[in-house]
Structures are given as structure tokens and as C-alpha cells.
Amino acid sequence: MTAxxxxxxxxxxxxxxxxxxxxxHQPARDRLASLDxxxxxxxxxxxxxxxxxxxxxxxxxxxxxxxNGWTPTDLIFPFFLFIVGITTHLSLTGRRRRGATDRQIxxxxxxxxxxxVLVGLxxxxxxxxxxxxxxxFGAQFDxxxxxxxxxxxxxxxxxxxxxVAYLCGALLTLRTSVKQQVxxxxxxxxxxxxxxxxxxxxxxxxxxxxxLNTKDGTLSAWLDRTVFGVNHLWVGSHTWDPEGILxxxxxxxxxxxxxxxxxxxASDRPLLERIVALFSIGAMxxxxxxxxxxxxxxxxxxxxxxxxxFTAGMGAVTLATCMWLIDVRHVRWxxxxxxxxxxxPLAAYVAEGFFSRIIYTLVRVPSGGTMIPLETAIYxxxxxxxxxxxxxxxxxxICYVLLFLGLMWELYRRRIxxxx
Length: 420
Fold this sequence. Notes:
Layout: E1 2-4, E2 9-10, E3 18-19, H1 33-50, H2 76-97, H3 102-124, E4 132-134, E5 140-142, H4 158-172, H5 178-198, E6 200-201, E7 206-207, H6 219-228, H7 248-265, H8 271-292, H9 305-328, H10 336-343, H11 345-362, E8 363-367, E9 370-373, H12 374-382, H13 389-413, E10 416-418
Antiparallel strand pairs: 1-10, 2-3, 4-5, 5-8, 6-7, 8-9
Helix pairs in contact: 1-2, 1-9, 1-10, 1-11, 1-13, 2-4, 2-7, 2-9, 3-4, 4-7, 5-7, 7-9, 8-9, 10-13
């Protein structure tokens, strides 16, 4: 759904914080520019790490951890879920203020969550059929990924997880107190830990705790194969899925922690008090996650309970830092690109997925007597010829981010926001 922005608007993955014109330096009392910047930083980071010139030459911080542990890249997805939780609280509060009943809020939340999942499924399913279209200059537009056919359609994914986590987070926090929400998060994280470590994994003759270092031997991997079958799992493995069923449960906890943070941020307490508390609690969550890491390793692919606490804490600390710089110290000269990205997160994500599929997979051009992806041709001829591999790959990714900044700027200039 598209909407024209009047003077100010709202934008999460549907609802979020008010987004002001970039040039405005005095935010309204009921909004913080730092929330928009935090969301925009996350989107820009996603574009950067998802689109290197070549996957064989990447600086380590821009790669995911191989299994256990974390890199800055592993923070992007949980940061996004954390901000979804924050904007969920702000959205629900705004709807109540406008007179919406609980029934209306539940209906709208279910519709929005379902739409996010549907968009994720459609994006995963591109292209839908195999075809070849010959283009000028010897190029061709073709489907070289038959695994995207209906019989091999991946049913899980990033947007699917966001939709489920958003819906569950919204419903579980609709009429619960902060104390009850903390108890819900504790139950989700402790229950997931016990399930992943104490339950014997069928076919493995061992409890889950002894299999956490095996990618396809965990309880989560077994459940995904059992429910979906290997043809509908992530094509990078076919034996386990990083956005699987069981690991989505603690991801709901990430979203609820964002709701709790949103409730605190939106309180009437002095701004500095909110910032100090957010920073302090975030630091304590990080420590708790690092301690839990000793027995339940920080792992993005499994979305372990320690990963939830550590990344939510990191998100709170990062947001508190943004709030202090932007809303207290008014250091805003660097923020305008991220405000623009933060206004249209769904548009940026979907457009990136579609455009990347085209240039990385579908459009092929002749080179050296063979057909290569358009992205490879661009990288080889315009970047790799004059820079070392890692620098060339990084510059390609930066140019990709700048390209999308231009696209998002055009939407911003026309005051258009894409939302569900």
C-alpha cells in the first residue's frame, strides 16, 4: 500500500515513529529523531552486507559468524526486530489514543502480520517460472534457479519471521504489564534453552546440548526437516534453516524486549533519565547474554537465548547512544541519509531483494565467451580492475547503498511512504 506523506507521517514496517523533514532540527515532544536514524542505520547496514562485489573477498566484520559467536553483521536482523518491537508499542498506543478498540487492534495486527509474511513468500518465490528472454547486445534475462519453483519454494525467511514476531509480540503485549512481559520473555528464552539442550534429538541418539555445534543435528534442524521437508528449506543447506520454526520462538522475545524498550522511551520521564536507564539496562542484558553464552552459545542461526539478550542489549545501548547524540547534543549533520532509509524500510527491503535477484541471478551478459551475471560483469570491469579484491568488493557494496539512497530520496522528495 502506498501513502502520500503530508507534513509528518508514521512508518515502521507499517507503523512507526513520526518522520520529519530532514532539515528540521527541533523534533516534536512526542517523537525522537533518533528512532528514525536507528532504523535507517539498520537498513543501510543490511544493504551493505547483503551486496558485496564478490562473496569470496569480504572484510570479516561484514560477514556472518560461521556458527557460534557474532560479528557486526549478525546484529542487523535482531536490531530490526528490536525496532519493530519499539514501533509496535508506539503504534498500539497511537491507535488506542485515536479510539480503536482491542478487537480493531487485533484485527489490524493480524492483517499486517499476514501481509508481511505474504510479501516475504512472494519475494522468496521470485522468479515464479523458468524462462529466457534475449536482450540487446547479447545479454539474456533468464531463470537459472529452478529451486524457486513451487515444489522447492522456501517457506521461511526474514520477512516471514518479522511478520510472525510482530504479530505475536503485538498480541502478547496488548493487555499485559511490563512485569508480565518480562515473564513472557523469560518463559520463551528458558523454554527454548531447555528444549534445545535437554530433549533428545530423533535419529541422533543424543540430547540437544551435545549437538549444538552441528548445523544439521540440532532439534531445530530436525523439526524444520520434519515439517517442511528438505525441498522447502534454505537453499544454502537443505538440511537446516536459519529462520526455522523453533528458532522463531526466541525471536518473538527479541520483539517483546523492543516493546518494553518502546514503553520506557515513550514515558514522561526526563529524556536524560530515559537514556541513562536504556543504556544501563542494555549493558546488563549484554553481560547476561555473554554469561549465558558459556552454556548456550551466542548463535544467530539458532537465535539462541544468549543471542537474544546480547543483541537486544546491544540494540538498547546503540539506540541510547543515538538518542544522546541526536536528541540531547543535537549532533545531526550525519543523520539525513539514515532518516531517509528509516522512512521506507519495507520499500528498501523489497526493492533490494528484487533488484539483487535481477543483477546477481537473472540478467546474464556475454564475457569471455560465456554468460555471466550482470553483477559479476559490473564488478569485474568497473571495480576489480583497479582495486584489491576486498576493497573492490566493499566499494561495490557502498555504491549499492548509495544507489538505494537515491531511490529512497526520490520517495522522500515526493513524500511517499510504502506501508502495509
